Amino acid sequence: MSRAPTRRAAAAGLAAGLLSGGARAAAPAPKRIVSLNPCLDVILVHLADRAQIVALSHWSHDPETSSLGPVGRTFPYTYESAEEVVALRPDLVLTGGHSSAASRAALARLGVRTALFAAPDTVEESLAQVAEVARAVGRPQRGDALVARIRAAIARAAPPPGERRLTVLVYQSGGFAAAKGALMDDMLTRAGFDNAATRYGLKRTGDVPLERVIADPPDVLLAGEPRPGAPNWADRVLTHPALSHVRGRMHRAVFPQRLTFCGGPVLIETAAMLARVRREALQALA
Fold it and tell me: Is the domain covering 163-284 a CATH 3.40.50.1980 domain?
């Protein structure tokens, strides 16, 4: 079974941060921070001093799905157990809604300061999350600068007024697609695409049968990359010969799966790739 949906579930814990007990007062910058969420890992690495980061989530060391890339594997990590976290003596732990509930409860009992984040469904929620994490780690000015960089990247990816919009399906390993209401859907809209998932009956992020794609292809298929080595059944969907039957009516582009998991600074690369794919698709479909 593909690990991507599991990775998405682990990532889906993130947006308006809430410090334990509802605390909002300014506090000294934490010196020992642990992250238990893969998307918080990405934001933390972009905002905090390296010396502040004691450990990231174990997802940061997964080469297939890490949104951080190779740099993530240069940090220590945990598997979210309270015992591991407490042993690191953190003064702040960043957690998501899909972080271990048992670990969160144990940390609360032990009086460990935590910040809980929920999943952003829009670009604005993601930017608000970046600013909230920046405040939590004592680096608000870096947060403002990162938000400005993300906004600029998204603005650069926007199509000129009046340019043709393209229908698109973000189609990952196993037929996993991004639906309306997700952060990726907001990014597609801002980059000049109309998400085709709705016409396949998809109301939430989930599976779209390959037969539906072939019968009614979108203008653009953003497909993930099959894993190296022997492919599993999910990877074979992405290289199925039946897709060749719609080649003349559908532009296909590789869209790394790691760009579909998280927002925050990941949106900079996502925006640039969407803009490039759009330019290539308009030429190919002209």
Answer: yes
